[in-house]
Amino acid sequence: MSNRDLADFNQFLYQSIPLVRFMQLQLISCNDNKLIARAPAQPNLNDKQTIFGGSSSALMTVCGWSLIKFNLEQRQFSNDVVIANAQTRWRSAQKDELLITAEADISWPAISEKLNQKQKTKINVHTKVDSAYHKRCTVMTADFVILNNPSG
Questions:
Q1: How many structural domains does the chain have?
Q2: Torsional sign, CA 128, 129, 135, 137
């Protein structure tokens, strides 16, 4: 896989994960340790006109996965990334745009070394969803695993 910029990666997500397209997730920025994204409320509302818990959970999972997968691709790695476990806490009902931040303390040189040695690697990602008014609504802590068998 070649180096992709974030716009191409957004398009990849829309094509590869149709739910992401439906939920209208938009990755805004990504560096080595932090990804910022947003999604509108409308396609993610439940019957009470608040954000559906499953939507916020799915969006946080995709953002944590994307933080790792995008950075791997930037380093010319095509390894698969999977979620191993997650703990989510819904703190407050939300009715407006989801502002999502995924962060991890990642040493990419150390990760690259492990992957070059064909070692499976685990990364802990902390993700939060804030409202448009900067109120913390949901938090997730998840472990993602970079598998030692590159895809495709």
A1: 1
A2: negative
Residue 128 covered by a domain: yes
Amino acid at 146: I
DSSP reduced 3-state for 8: helix
Distance, CA of 37 to CA of 59 (rounded, Å): 9
Q: Judge whether residue 35 has pLDDT over 70.
A: yes
Q: Kindly report the CATH number assigned to the domain that includes residue 51.
A: 3.10.129.10
Tell me the residue range of the domain where 62 lies: 6-150
Helix (H, G, I), strand (E, B) or coil at 77: coil
Q: Which conformational region is residue 23 in: left (phi greater than 0), alpha (psi within -120 to 50 degrees), or beta?
A: alpha
pLDDT at 1 over 50: no
Which pairing describes strands 34-39 and 121-130: parallel, antiparallel, or unpaired? Answer: unpaired
Placement of tokens 């995709």 in the chain: 62
The span from the CA of 55 to the CA of 43, in Å, is 9
